[in-house]
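Key result, reporting period 2: structure in, sequence out.
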């Protein structure tokens, strides 16, 4: 395998947490719910996914339970901001701290303090017959774990849902003009709550992917800012699933490039290398935000009785 092919394969592998977390952010945002708890939900997903896989066997079970736990947090965010019209940003930050704390607590209660943390099997690569033998593209796209394929399928399904179905039209109308959607019979509250839940489930799934792909165990701080970058990616992609999928390649590429430079033996402080993805993100966002189309009702609560926004 050539150096370029190896690099591109790592980029595709690194795209998955960005894709899932940013698509979850986008899904909730298109319904008007601005979730800022990505980093905490990914930590919680990583902890729950690892512990369930370790104690009950099987990565699939861990992924499912992690998604369910994340979905509950998202449901709570959607419900409390819709029912009581509390500030979405404040509740999201509270959930970030809560999820981060629960993630750490669960690990310490189940595993305790140990010098040799237990390991779980990492996800195996699944080679797609015929396609995996294509030069360059084969190893890069068709010799990956099932979660890589799932991330791409989720992106395609979200695009189809939003732009090819009547349900997607209703969902987008809730995030753009809930008053008009309400007048047409769309249940605005239910749409916001369940989109928030589904989006948070994807964020937790993104976190669960990390120990099952990179380390085989859970460590505090392993999300390493990917949750915050997922918010930037949602804006970078204009809150559209197809552009988020493409943008994730840039974010993942910068992450892999920073790691390659760090292990390449260059006489550069590792702190400088670690901040490269964030600097590149900041520079790109300065231009991308000028062209990004943000849902009109993003982060605002809708009061059906008074027909006003908060």
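The corresponding designed sequence is given below.
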């Amino acid at each position: 395998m050539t150096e370029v092919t190896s690099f591109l394969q790592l980029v595709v592998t690194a795209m998955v947490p960005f894709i899932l977390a940013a698509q979850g952010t986008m899904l909730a945002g298109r319904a008007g719910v601005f979730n800022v708890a990505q980093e905490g939900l990914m930590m919680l997903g990583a902890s729950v996914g690892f512990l369930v896989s370790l104690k009950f066997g099987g990565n699939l079970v861990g992924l499912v339970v992690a998604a369910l736990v994340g979905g509950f947090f998202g449901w709570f965010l959607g419900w409390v901001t819709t029912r009581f019209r509390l500030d979405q940003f404040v509740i999201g930050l509270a959930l970030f701290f809560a999820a981060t704390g629960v993630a750490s607590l669960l690990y310490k209660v189940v595993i305790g303090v140990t010098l040799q943390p237990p390991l779980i099997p990492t996800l195996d690569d699944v080679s797609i017959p015929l396609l995996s033998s294509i030069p360059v593209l084969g190893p890069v796209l068709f010799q990956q774990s099932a979660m890589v394929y799932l991330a791409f399928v989720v992106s395609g399904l979200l695009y189809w849902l939003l732009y090819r179905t009547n349900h997607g039209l209703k969902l987008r109308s809730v995030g753009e003009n809930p008053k008009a959607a309400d007048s047409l019979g769309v249940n605005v509250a239910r749409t916001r709550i369940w989109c928030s839940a589904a989006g948070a489930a994807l964020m937790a799934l993104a976190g669960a992917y990390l120990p099952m792909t990179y380390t085989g165990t859970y460590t505090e701080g392993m999300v390493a800012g990917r949750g915050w970058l997922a918010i930037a990616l949602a804006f970078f992609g204009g809150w559209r699933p197809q552009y988020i999928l493409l943008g994730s390649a840039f974010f993942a590429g910068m992450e892999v490039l920073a790691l390659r430079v760090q292990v390449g033996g260059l006489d550069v402080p590792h702190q400088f290398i670690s901040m490269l993805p964030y600097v590149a993100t900041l520079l790109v966002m300065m231009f991308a935000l000028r062209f990004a189309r943000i849902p009109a009702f993003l982060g605002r609560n809708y009061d059906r009785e008074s027909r006003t926004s908060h």
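The first strand starts at residue 125 and ends at 127. The chain is about 70% helix and 5% strand. This case is discussed further under Risks and Mitigation.
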